[in-house]
Amino acid sequence: MRRLVSAFLVFGLALASTATAAADPQTIPNGPWVQDSQQVRLERLHSYDEMVKALRQIQRQSKGRVSLETVGRSNEGRDLYLAKVGTGPTKVLYITQQHGNEPLGTEAALQLLQRLGNGGAGWDAILRKVTLLVIPKVNPDGSERFQRQNHDPDCSGAFCTPGVGFDVNRWHDPAVAPEDNPVPEAAAVQRVAIRYQPAMVVDYHHQGSYRSDDGDLITTSIFWPNHPDAPAPAVALSRQMCLAIFDTLMHYGFAEVSQYPGTLPRGIARNSYGIRGAGSVLVEMRGDIGQKSSGMLVRTAYATMGALLESVAEGTVFTLDPARADEIPLRGDFVDDPHEE
């Protein structure tokens, strides 16, 4: 499984930096990317317009390997894009930046699409087995403001911050039809899931900084659906996906991986798409960092994306023992000052 993952890791990663942002730690669930005291420049992260330009360039340079379509619009009217690459029967959906201030999954997804668009024998073999679907920067209005919520100051009701907007990652409940969903960004992801019926869904976020029981800083936390309505086969597949990610990252030694202490709401993407019957995984990258550590985190997210695709194409993910996921270490204590070392 790790032959092509090694190539993913050595592929050049053009990284992102940032504008000052502030956020209070929110650890259940998800969390801020930066803290109040940090000065971080955002110029090298892709803005929405820059992301669209990059996607179109990837499409052109791929000579038809990568296709784009719009699958909805944000509350402020920005187009939401779906990128597709591959012709395989197993569909895998990656979604990034549901929370606007959690950006590095988007950067990793753009680099992944660029690499797959370039092709090569190994990649072509994977993409004959897998069709990859990517919705990058699901919350473009929030990303432009570097805030967690979408932009809907008139919102009301559940998971609304008055005067700001909705938490997009609370509005994927299968019981809410896309046409009835008050959060257009979540509704777009729902429509993609209904239309393409992906076998696997992976949702990328950031959390705060935490330590393992051994005192090491956690770089990545992962988790599967834990809502009781998620069918057992979907939960088992989700656990296997977590193990494919865990085994790869721990093998390369540049990541410290833990279980994320996931909560139960049906509208969280991790639970919702598990309830729909897909393997569904949350990937939480470490937050509370400046640009010095961002390259490593993009590389880590990029490795999880590549490892899962390769594992699916080779079929090894389906041979993993789902029960072994319980051995992934639990996340430790929150670090009040992640810069103390």
UniProtKB/TrEMBL annotation:
GO CC annotations on file: extracellular space
MF terms from GO for this chain are: metallocarboxypeptidase activity; zinc ion binding
Catalytic residues in the record: E284 (proton donor/acceptor)
Any keyword DNA-binding?
no
- Please give the InterPro entries that the UniProt record associates with this protein: Peptidase_M14
Which UniProt keyword terms apply here? Hydrolase, Metalloprotease, Protease, Signal, Zinc
Q: The Peptidase M14 domain covers which part of the protein?
A: 44-309
Residues annotated as signal peptide: 1-21
Tell me, which GO biological process terms does this entry list?
proteolysis
Task: Write down the Pfam families for this protein, in alphabetical order.
Answer: Peptidase_M14 (PF00246)
CC cofactor: Zn(2+)
What the record says about family reads: Belongs to the peptidase M14 family.
UniProt protein name: Peptidase M14
Organism of origin is Kribbella turkmenica
